[in-house]
Structure formats: structure tokens, C-alpha cells
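Same chain as my last thread, 72 residues:
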Amino acid sequence: MLEVVTMKEIDAIFAVTDALGIHRESLVIPLGPAAPGRVRRLPNGKLEITVEAARPLDEWLAELPALIAAVR
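reply #2:
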């Protein structure tokens, strides 16, 4: 179970969001993961991406584009 989001997880998220053409400045990535992980739009328009704590990162990252599409 993931307890803290490190640069490893953040870089993996950036690989996904960069490929989607999402600017890094428009993202907020909390350093505390959660179960389930989620994506939501903040009142300021930024996307908050909370990393999944209970499942393997690669598995969750495969779902990340769909989670982002659901809130865009």
C-alpha cells in the first residue's frame, strides 16, 4: 500500500498527462495517496489527481486518461 507520493509517482503521472497535452501547471497532485485514487476539477479550474494507494501504480495509471476525460 502506497503511503507517500514521491517523484517516481509524480513523474509517472506527468508521462500520462504530457501525452494528453495537459500543462503541468494546471495539475495539483497531493502528496498523500487515497483509496480510491481520483481526479477532480478544483474551483480554480485545475485538475487534482490523487494517487491510488491500494492498487499497483501501473494498473491505476492505465485508467488515468479515462478518469481525466470524465472531468474535462
